[in-house]
């Protein structure tokens, strides 16, 4: 929907009115046939139709384009009243800057910022409302450190609140201790499995070394026997030599 034409000061050119809602164009788009529409209006129209609502020429969303620059400039220069005029705002500004003004307007109706409060109040009166709002919060005057709502003053019990917090902290601590215990047990199991695996590898290496040593001892004995045999043969040859 467009901007209510009754809000505007002075004459508004017919070409700046939406061809569907007949209000002043808001976020405008233009069809190839040069008829202009509010974006929300033409999108809603094209859900059920496939032509221009003015001359019935065939159009679809892909054919829509932004408004011509000169028309956009004319549109932005239009002067209009703030939408909060009925609440007392007498601001008149250009269409180009109206959104910025209305976001900051002191007469805008805004919700109370206190959780649970459903009051809508003018921005200029918000501070006064917050000071007396039954949903406003404050720190407990007795020093327990809790933030309480004014409506809960009569139900607030510092000892009960602190006892509840203590129980929560105790439960949280128990959970953390259990988690740390499980994590430590998991680590110990992992290290134990690693040590067993390492021990098995070392045992295999020891057995292999024993086997190699056994083969070396056997080789040494064979060499010693061969040496004795060789010595005996030399001695026998020496005796034969002497006899000759």
From TrEMBL:
<keyword id="KW-0862">Zinc</keyword>
<keyword id="KW-0863">Zinc-finger</keyword>
<keyword id="KW-0175">Coiled coil</keyword>
<dbReference type="InterPro" id="IPR001841">
    <property type="entry name" value="Znf_RING"/>
</dbReference>
<keyword id="KW-0479">Metal-binding</keyword>
<dbReference type="InterPro" id="IPR013083">
    <property type="entry name" value="Znf_RING/FYVE/PHD"/>
</dbReference>
<feature type="domain" description="TRAF-type">
    <location>
        <begin position="101"/>
        <end position="144"/>
    </location>
</feature>
<keyword id="KW-0436">Ligase</keyword>
<feature type="domain" description="RING-type">
    <location>
        <begin position="18"/>
        <end position="56"/>
    </location>
</feature>
<dbReference type="GO" id="GO:0043122">
    <property type="term" value="P:regulation of canonical NF-kappaB signal transduction"/>
</dbReference>
<dbReference type="InterPro" id="IPR017907">
    <property type="entry name" value="Znf_RING_CS"/>
</dbReference>
<dbReference type="GO" id="GO:0008270">
    <property type="term" value="F:zinc ion binding"/>
</dbReference>
<feature type="coiled-coil region">
    <location>
        <begin position="192"/>
        <end position="243"/>
    </location>
</feature>
<dbReference type="InterPro" id="IPR001293">
    <property type="entry name" value="Znf_TRAF"/>
</dbReference>
<feature type="zinc finger region" description="TRAF-type">
    <location>
        <begin position="101"/>
        <end position="144"/>
    </location>
</feature>
<dbReference type="Pfam" id="PF13923">
    <property type="entry name" value="zf-C3HC4_2"/>
</dbReference>
<protein>
    <submittedName>
        <fullName>RNF41 ligase</fullName>
    </submittedName>
</protein>
<dbReference type="Pfam" id="PF02176">
    <property type="entry name" value="zf-TRAF"/>
</dbReference>
<dbReference type="GO" id="GO:0016874">
    <property type="term" value="F:ligase activity"/>
</dbReference>
């Amino acid at each position: 929907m467009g901007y209510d034409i009754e809000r505007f000061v002075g004459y508004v050119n017919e070409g700046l009115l939406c061809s569907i809602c007949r209000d002043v164009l808001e976020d405008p788009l233009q069809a190839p046939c040069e008829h202009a529409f509010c974006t929300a209006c033409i999108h809603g129209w094209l859900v059920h139709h496939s032509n221009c609502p003015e001359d019935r020429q065939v159009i679809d969303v892909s054919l829509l384009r932004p408004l011509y620059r000169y028309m956009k400039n004319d549109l932005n220069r239009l002067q209009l009243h703030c939408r909060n005029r009925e609440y007392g705002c007498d601001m008149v500004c250009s269409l180009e800057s109206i959104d910025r003004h209305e976001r900051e307007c002191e007469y805008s109706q805004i919700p109370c910022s206190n959780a649970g409060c459903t009051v809508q109040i003018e921005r200029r009166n918000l501070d006064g409302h917050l000071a007396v709002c039954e949903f406003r919060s404050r720190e407990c005057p007795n020093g327990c450190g809790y933030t309480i709502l004014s409506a809960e003053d009569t139900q607030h019990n510092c000892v009960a609140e602190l006892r509840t917090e203590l129980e929560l902290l105790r439960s949280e601590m128990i959970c953390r201790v259990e988690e740390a215990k499980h994590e430590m047990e998991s680590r110990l199991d992992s290290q134990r499995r690693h040590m067993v695996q390492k021990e098995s590898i070392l045992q295999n290496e020891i057995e292999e070394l024993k086997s190699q040593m056994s083969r070396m001892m056997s080789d040494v004995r064979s060499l010693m026997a061969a040496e004795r045999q060789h010595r005996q043969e030399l001695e026998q040859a020496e005796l034969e030599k002497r006899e000759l």
